[in-house]
# Entry
Amino acid sequence: MVRSVDATARASFIGLDLNHGFADMVRAVFNGLAMASRDCYVEMGPLPSRVRLTGGAARSASLRRILGGALGCSVQTSEREEAGAAGTAMIAAVSLGIYGSMEECVKEWVTPYQRPAEPADKAMAARFDAAFPLYRQSRLSLRPVWHALSHGSAPVSEQERLQ
# Structure
């Protein structure tokens, strides 16, 4: 079955109480990104044994640890700056015949920049395994709310009324 992306999807904070502060909200964003990643991987098949990250967010040890826990896999990062631009250059280099194959190019352009993979925190992975069914339940339950919000059913703020 082919699934499509729900363009009405919205971020949500659920389960908050008066004891939650800014740090809890930041952690919730990281957890939400990790759970959404897991949700996507589950839709594609089995969870990966390793993921590779690059870019600014990959520099966050907390994000790497949370993502590894949510996916139950190791996380590997790259020291290469501007990995997207490097990927584009790699495609051009292979297309122009500078490298005989992408695998040959990867050996020079990617492999030397890879850091050792960081294994998943087993205790964190167990917590994410337990929480994932609740995440899925909340995501599915919120779909009607997202659809209503996307069709103009959301209340208008005072600032929007004045414009």
